[in-house]
Amino acid sequence: MPRSDDPSNKNDSEADPSQVDYQFLENLSTAYWQSEVLFSALELKLFDYIESEHATTRKLCALSGCREDGLYRLLKVMKRMELVGESEGNWFNSQIARRYLVEKSPSYMGNYFLYRRAMQENFRLLTRKISLNDDPEATSRRHSDSGENYAVRNFNYVRALDQLAKEKAREIVEILFRETWSLPILDLGGGAGTLCRFLVASISGADRKKGIHSLAADDVAEGPADASGALRGVLLDLPEVIEAARKIYPDETDWKGIETVGADFRFHAFTKERTFGLIVMSNFLHAYGEKEARKLLEKALSLLKPGGKVLIHDYFPDRLGRNPQKGAVYDLAMMLNTYDGECHEASSVVSWLGAAGIRESIVLDLETDSSLILAGEKLSRDHLVPLPLQWADIAISEGFRRAVPIPTEKIATAPWVRLKCRYGCDGFGKNFQCPPNGRDDLETGRLVRSYKWALLLEGAPPGRLFHQRLLCLERRAFLSGLHKAFVMGAGPCTVCSNCPGGGACNRSDLARPSMEASGIDVFQTAKEAGLYLAPVKEKWQYVKYIGLLLLE
Asked: Which residues, in sequence order, are CB contacts of 400 under 8 Å at separation 6+?
């Protein structure tokens, strides 16, 4: 599935009349989440403390007077927002934070940004300001703590999440359509049952692209299970959620083949003989802390049929996806709105599954801002995740900041590139991997077009570490069976401290040519891949390294 690194994905922060999905609107509705992160960091003087010394989380807690768990979750969001970075447990400011958010900087603007926060309360009065009513929000605010109002709020909550579930369900069902799984379904914490309903419809032969009434209202032909009244799915959620779900979908045809159970899964016990072919946990685990979430996952797995599968849909902080910040900032939403909820990393959930005996798992980023984990036996990995995206994930796990699949026809070569090496670089002729040595643009063009696809890899200094990561990734790809794997680096070769010059390269086993030394227009190629790349104008500015992995 597409990731944020897929250049076909748009910048969701930009208004565009051609947009057709809801993600732009979702980003508008949660924009204040990230602004509040910035405001809190300024109020706590985190940028100042980080600048004074590359502090650990514990040290920052002592300086700012914060709880370690909460501060670490905030710092993780700041890292995803590129405000800070982390190296070996120490935090450091990004170049933009160092310039504008550290009080001793001549360009400090922290007071200005906090002034923007002071304006926020008046923006909350916008509806009242333009409404003909004196106070259109007054009714909804009355008796806010009453039991009756809790029921109203709960209904609104279930209805709101159901609207989101409809959008997510269509894509999830498309993914599951490529995979073999069996009934019945157990949908844990499934709200109004939309995902369960879509899944039941898809396996019943209904049009999986249609809306919520695809089982009944579209006159789908019933299979044997429907004709016999057999159970196809169980929806389990809190009693008040099930009550709201029944109000949202009062037509019994919407519940055909689906049993509803109003219970807290932490305390509910199914009979021993009840097992399920597909267990769904959509936005469920993040309501609980790590210990309880893992316990509930293990409890769910005990209800799985032999050969059954588990589908976990959530916001995972360690996934990039279409919105790289969403998982981390959603974790803060859980910290603020639940007793002990947190968004767990996908890698952690996969390890929990493995420890419970589920050895095979696939993580997929949706086209929107969340991700899936599909676990079980005999998964169709290559059908679910195209090979280029599999290797993009592997590259990220190896330490690259970004990894973008790119068709080789989009790799730009030009004769002028090597002229930049001859005229303008004082390293010309001093390194075996630099011009006038190596391939020219014509030879490189023939080389890259002997492959179908490649990965463009983004990293940062030091150059030797970047080069080592390239070699590790090339080796890993080769050993996996991609025998044509070959990498190109960034800038002069860093293998030897001093290139001997003359004769032959002493470390041809480790040396690799750079992209630019081979006549590749790195700026144009990065643009084709959707990566932002610009010349570094000042010594203090952030430096990006771009490498290339040719794969086939």
From this structure: 457, 458, 459, 469, 473
